[in-house]
Design goal:
Elements (H helix, E strand, L loop, with lengths): L8 H5 L43 E3 L5 E7 L4 E8 L6 E3 L13 E7 L6 E13 L5 E3 L3 E2 L3 E4 L8 E6 L6 H14 L3 E5 L9 H9 L12 E4 L34 E5 L2 E5 L19 H17 L1 H4 L3 E5 L25 H14 L3 E4 L6 E3 L8 E4 L9 E7 L4 E7 L5 E7 L4
Parallel strand pairs: 10-11, 11-12, 14-15, 15-16, 16-18
Antiparallel strand pairs: 1-2, 2-5, 3-4, 3-6, 6-7, 6-8, 6-9, 10-19, 13-14, 17-18, 19-20, 20-21
């Protein structure tokens, strides 16, 4: 993926082409003993080829904010230019502790201060950057993406829709078929419900399978919502996944560590994002003392109670929860996730904590994955919420879930990916 095969460079860069002849040198003018004798020193970054490795990935669109990430081929700095018209005019940078970003593999920026149900425009800007010493550094001229647009979510939209793909396990042909179907259905957002890859040992793996699996701007205008799966926690690079799949901002410091938990309204639908964690208990020898999910799930339970009390969530006509590992399995012998034998078929510890809140606040549907086979469980007298489980990574068992809701009903449909046949369709009436 180093040169992003199939990447339309001319369309992506717009009017700026970067190469040896067009590299601009930016030299610090800082004074002091450290830079004595090198005030005018500068050096071009060694890589003057294309240094953007993916189209922008729009994510985490809320009523008032959105984040954008993009992959790199060389160490760079960058920012997002945005505005209410294609003229843009504002800049967002992922600055931290007074420093603007400098990254090797991914850049990102969060746009804030937005208005609900409003259209915005943006483009990314990337400049390859080189440090030789503290004051001997340089950057190329920015490389710009095309201008894209998105609309913030909010409760005032008359309808809401989402598309779910899951357990892709770095199977790029399957990912491309999912995206092709999503292009036809035009959902408000794509929810990638865990196990995007089988493991994460380096950044290149993420660039190929997540940032640019289709060689197209598949997520530049239609946001990706990421719900972690158990495989998304495996490997030496798993802790860096947030560089590409950005986390949500929590408004309560108590929940700052819950980066992938969030609740938002998309028209009549309230979406609740939960993280079931790994498919074995923390004390399983497979983790070598590297798992600590029990307190993490307990904290999510406290967060979930607060999220479901939020007025815009509590008043939603439909409430849908998303998590990777199912919370229910009809098989009485199914592995519940709290024993040493093999791996969880469903996550009974999470169900014990979260199902009572689903009951109390009227959650109608849980959308899950993990089992690599489609299933649908109707509500029962002991469980008022339904559960749908998506398919697996191979075309033979892959399926897509699509949901559309308006003021009259919410309709859920599951489709086989290989022949586009319908596996089932269900409707839900408004809660309120």
């Amino acid at each position: 993926m180093g040169n992003c095969e199939g990447f339309n460079r001319r369309a992506f860069l717009g009017s700026v082409a970067v190469g040896v002849g067009s590299s601009a040198i930016l030299t610090s003018n800082a004074q002091g003993q450290e830079n004595k004798g090198q005030e005018n020193a500068s050096a071009k970054p060694e890589q003057t080829q294309q240094f953007v490795a993916s189209y922008p990935i729009l994510q985490n669109v809320t009523e008032t904010s959105a984040s954008i990430a993009w992959a790199l081929n060389t160490p760079s700095t960058g920012w997002v230019e945005w505005g209410t018209t294609p003229a843009l005019g504002k800049i967002a940078r992922n600055s931290e502790f007074g420093l603007n970003p400098f990254e090797e593999d991914f850049l990102s920026a969060r746009i804030s201060g937005l208005a609900p149900n409003t259209k915005y425009y943006y483009r990314t800007a990337t400049a390859a950057f080189s440090y030789r010493t503290a004051y001997d550094k340089s950057a190329t001229e920015p490389q710009y993406s095309d201008v894209y647009s998105f609309t913030t979510c909010g409760p005032n939209a008359k309808s809401g829709s989402f598309f779910v793909m899951n357990d892709t396990h770095n199977t790029i042909p399957t990912i491309r078929e999912h995206v092709k179907l999503a292009d036809e259905l035009k959902p408000d957002f794509i929810l990638w419900n865990g196990d995007l890859c089988s493991f994460y040992m380096d950044a290149q793996h993420i660039k190929e399978n997540i940032a640019n699996p289709t060689n197209s701007p598949y997520a530049a205008e239609r946001p990706i919502i990421f719900v972690p799966g158990n495989h998304d926690r495996r490997g030496s690079w798993a802790r860096n996944l947030k560089k590409c799949l950005t986390t949500w901002e929590q408004d309560d410091p108590k929940f700052y560590s819950l980066g992938y938990n969030y609740a938002f309204r998309q028209g009549p639908i309230a979406a609740i994002l939960l993280d079931t964690g790994e498919d074995k208990p923390d004390w399983h020898p497979a983790w070598s003392e590297m798992a600590n999910y029990e307190p993490y799930r307990e904290l999510q339970t406290a967060w979930l109670m607060k999220a479901l009390e939020r007025p815009e969530i509590k008043s939603a006509p439909y409430i849908v929860a998303f998590c990777h590992i199912p919370l229910y399995d009809k098989n009485p012998k199914a592995n519940p996730g709290n024993i040493l034998d093999r791996w969880a078929s469903f996550q009974w510890p999470c169900c014990q904590m979260w199902s009572p809140l689903f009951e109390k606040y009227g959650v109608q549907l849980a959308v899950a994955a993990h089992q690599h086979r489609f299933s649908y469980a109707e509500p029962t007298k002991d469980r008022s919420w339904a559960q749908i489980v998506g398919g697996g990574p191979e075309m033979a068992n892959a399926c897509s879930i699509y949901c559309y809701a308006d003021e009259n009903e919410m309709k859920l449909t599951c489709t086989k990916l290989d022949d586009k046949s319908e596996l089932g369709s269900w409707t839900y009436k408004p809660r309120v």
